[in-house]
């Protein structure tokens, strides 16, 4: 794991967006279509605001959330909603957002079909993850019912998870799929998350799920 520290979150967003755009351009030189995976939550919005203006062949880019809260896209908590509103605009409007939610179905019932639909786009070319102060990444929460399955070396692409205290069920790409990414970034802001990341080092992924994705990971940190 490599930690890059920035003076503020604005500089971090610009630098990270530049880096991801370069990686996407490099991946597009190698493949017809490339897969960009990004988180939801409160942190990545400013990166999306910068990345969406990057000049690259977005029509050859598939975009997928790292995980989804089981809500329709119109819902305020939908990760897809954030991605569509903040990333798939301007230059990036021609990218294709892959679904991670199916209306009128449960996560358990839908993950097989959703995973099959995303299968042709794998592996991930560029991955950006977020992390909570509880050391969860994507929707791999320490207290999730299916965490052990999501961490297995032979895990399915997409795993349904119920997390005590969270307002809705979740689905998440498994650690195996996240770790197959050609480039892996994690974005965090503030001292509490930096301390949580330090605590996670050396802990088992069952206790600190972010530890499952630390190999070859570049962590981008800025103060609050
Ligand atoms: O619930 C989620 O949380 C994490 C971290 O979110 P943040 O608001 O603390 O930045 C996020 O990466 C994940 O995609 C999301 O579903």
Keywords:
224 residues; alpha/beta; Rossmann fold; 3-stranded antiparallel β-sheet; 7 helices; binds ligand LXAUTJHC; 6-phosphogluconolactonase; 6-phosphogluconolactonase activity
Explain this structure to me?
The protein is an alpha/beta fold and 224 residues long. It has one domain (2-222): 3-Layer(aba) Sandwich (Rossmann fold), CATH 3.40.50. Helix content is 31%, strand content 20%. The protein has seven helices and ten strands. The chain has helices at 9-30, 45-51, 79-86, 107-119, 147-151, 175-179, 191-200; strands at residues 2-5, 34-38, 61-65, 67-69, 96-97, 126-129, 158-161, 170-173, 183-189, 217-222. Helix 1 (9-30) crosses helix 2 (45-51). Hydrolysis of 6-phosphogluconolactone to 6-phosphogluconate.
**What would the principal axes of the Cα set say about the shape?**
globular
Number of domains: 1
* Ligand identities: the ligand O=C1O[C@H](COP(=O)(O)O)[C@@H](O)[C@H](O)[C@H]1O
- CATH-derived architecture: 3-Layer(aba) Sandwich
Strand content: 15-25%
Instruction: Count the beta strands.
Output: 10
Sheet with the most strands, sense and barrel status: 7 strands, parallel
CATH top level class name: Alpha Beta
What's the alpha carbon Rg, rounded to whole Å? 16 Å
Average per-residue pLDDT, rounded, comes to 98
- Which fold name corresponds to the CATH topology? Rossmann fold
Output the strand order for the largest sheet: 1-10-9-6-2-3-5
Number of helices: 7
Low-confidence stretches: none
Cα distance spanning the termini: 22 Å
Structural class: alpha/beta
Order of helices and strands: EHEHEEHEHEHEEHEHE
Helix content: 25-40%
């Amino acid at each position: 794991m490599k930690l890059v520290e920035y003076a503020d979150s604005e500089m971090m967003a610009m630098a990270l967006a530049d880096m991801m755009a370069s990686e996407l351009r490099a991946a597009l030189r190698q493949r017809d279509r490339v897969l960009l995976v990004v988180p939801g939550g409160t942190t990545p919005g400013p990166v999306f605001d910068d990345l969406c203006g990057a000049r690259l062949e977005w029509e050859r880019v598939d975009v997928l959330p790292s995980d989804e809260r089981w809500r329709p896209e119109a819902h305020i908590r939908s990760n897809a909603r954030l991605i569509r509103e903040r990333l798939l605009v301007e230059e990036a409007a021609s990218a294709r957002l892959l679904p991670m939610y199916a209306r009128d179905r449960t996560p358990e019932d839908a993950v097989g079909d959703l995973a099959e639909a995303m299968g042709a786009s794998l592996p991930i070319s560029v991955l950006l993850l977020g992390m909570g102060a509880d050391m969860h990444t994507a929707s791999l929460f320490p207290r999730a019912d299916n965490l052990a399955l999501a961490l297995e070396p032979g895990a399915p692409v997409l795993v349904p998870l119920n997390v005590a205290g969270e307002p809705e069920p979740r689905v998440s790409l498994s650690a195996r799929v996240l770790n197959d990414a050609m480039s892996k970034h994690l974005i965090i802001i503030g001292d509490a998350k930096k301390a949580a990341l330090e605590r996670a080092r050396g802990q088992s992924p069952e206790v600190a799920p972010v530890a499952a994705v630390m190999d070859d990971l570049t962590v981008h940190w800025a103060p609050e």
